[in-house]
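Weekend entry, working from home. Most of the wet-lab plans are on hold until the incubator is repaired, so I used the time to fold the two sequences that have been sitting in the queue since the last round of cloning. Logging both here for the record. First:
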Amino acid sequence: MALIEIENLSVTFTTAGRKVRAVQDVSFKVEAQQSFGLVGESGSGKSTILRAICGMAPITGGQIRIDGKPLPTPRGRAFAAQVQMVFQDPYASLHPRHTVDRVLSEPLAIHGQGGSDAKIEQALIDVGLPPAFRFRYPHQLSGGQRQRVAIARALMLQPQILLLDEPTSALDASVQAETLNLLSRLRAERGLTFVMVSHDLAVIDHMCDRVLVMQNGQAVEELSREALASAAMTTPYARALFAASADRMLEG
């Protein structure tokens, strides 16, 4: 049994009096300790899937199961202990008036866990930051450092699953590789399962075992890492997406 099962998922929003079908009958499975990628252009529905898993987007059809169990609504503390999300913009996702210490201690306090001092210091060390950063504010950190704090916060409750929504796209190119390598190391050390959203196939190729290509809210094609690396796509859209990504890499 897969750890994550998405079955015929649909998400429909009502905006300005009209319905927008952001996700349409999407299905995929993610095995434990696997890294699964969702790739596509802006508006393809990939980030909406992560938000639906977290209960932040309205599920209008289908089902999401973790460990074979349908997710409750609202998600609750048990879900938060098992699944955490890292957002695209590390500055927007951290409270500007909270120190790193408070950011990292809040999940522990909410879940009634003690020993926060030692856990916070260890969390910072685990993401490559000095323990002295505990008492800094987000504006005193670089973009890469803020994202490391966001990753540390997501790991405070020792979840099984990380949902990664474009975790490096807001970072400078020189910092992106460091952050991706950090995530890869943490996944290996902790046996984590990733669902990762990106518009960049190069990032997905580096990080993911399997990838689902999405377009206009629909699943277009699912590929293994080997098929992606050898450009063995079967659909025109997936081939075009790969070609565009390859052109950007050459330009860079």
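Second, folded right after the first finished:
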Amino acid sequence: MFGRIREDIKCVFERDPAARNSFEVLTTYPGVHAVILHRIAHWYWTHGLKWLARVTGMFSRWLTGIEIHPGAIIGRRFFIDHGMGVVIGETAEIGDNVTLYHGVTLGGTTWDKGKRHPTLEDDVVVGAGAKVLGPITIGEGARIGSNAVVVKDVPEEATVVGIPGRIVSSPEIDPETHKRRKAFANKIGFDAYGTSQDMPDPVANAIDRLLDHVHVMDNHMEDMCQALKKLGMEVPVVDLPDLGPCEINIREKGEKPKSDTESAD
């Protein structure tokens, strides 16, 4: 359990640029407090100490504003950012490297006993105020947009927005564009959370366009460096992460980058 708590603290630095040191995270982050107390409450719950588990959960809710039922199953490196108003039901299951923002509800839609809360697979991100309801499955790497209401299964790597939630981006809709944008975003160290060309959000659309533009410029710069090397000039080597097998070159698809005039049109 203590190993998982150390991982929960460490993962904060990967997802919150405001985190400065471990002592600050441990003492001032309510999301971390809620996860630590849940680890303890869940241990009580699974060892038959139901009342003590519920009391621990109630104390956690009073301290952090985050309500996690002791019966919920939570994986490794789980991060709740800000956290106020988060509710996680008894039969919810959360995988590894999952991130929730404030106001998220993982709730049920029935009073029947048994599985009635969502399952979130690894690497899922749920935006602020989103409601994920019922015994549904959110696939690995999926993104749930802020204030979305999701009542149906979501496939892997999909982005869901709106009320009711609808899929606006997934590998099945446009696999080449999705793969290229994700790979390039990983290369430059940017998590394009919740962005989709079809999303009704001008900021998200602008980010997608920017990623496409930077990707084209990256290819042009690489070609220029190769041409300079052929002319005998020395080109400094910049240590950048390689896209590897995920790279998709726009030119391989037969597309030409638009000129400034065409872009303005």
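Plan for Monday: verify the second prediction. The longest helix spans residues 202-230.
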